[in-house]
Amino acid sequence: MQKPCTRLMAASAVVFGVVGALVPRRVIEVAGRLLLAGYENPEDLEPEGWYVSAVRGKSALSALAGAIVLALEYGPSRGGDAEAEDTEDAEADAVDRADAEE
Fold first, then answer.
1. Locate the DUF6199 domain: which residues (predicted)?
2. Tens digits of per-residue pLDDT, 24-55?
3. CB of 66 closer than 8 Å to CB of 17
4. pLDDT higher for 80 or 11?
């Protein structure tokens, strides 16, 4: 259960991170509507430039972190482990056959 959940969370971090990095003002607008629903004029609020840059940076880092997790999950080391296990199984089978022939 942990592996599929990890992959799902990493993939969603990549997707939402890329969206936030590409269109941070839109992300801020949507978040503002959700978080400031009870306020009188939330549409009049304008984010400062540093805040937009911070959202863009945070989103890019989230996408990078998700991509790293996915790379670790699906990376070449997983294939290498499977190949090593196959080699060990083949060697064990060869030893068993040699013992059976004697």
1. 13-72
2. 999 999 998 898 888 888 778 889 999 999 99
3. yes
4. 11
pTM, full prediction: 0.66
Whole-angstrom Cα distance, residue 18 to residue 26?
Answer: 13
Domain residue ranges of the chain, discontinuous segments joined by +: 2-75
32, two tokens: 């503002």
Q: What is the 3-state secondary structure (H, E, C) of the chain?
A: CHHHHHHHHHHHHHHHHHHHHHCHHHHHHHHHHHHCCCCCCHHHCCCCHHHHHHHHHHHHHHHHHHHHHHHHHHCHHHHHHHHHHHHHHHHHHHHHHHHHHC
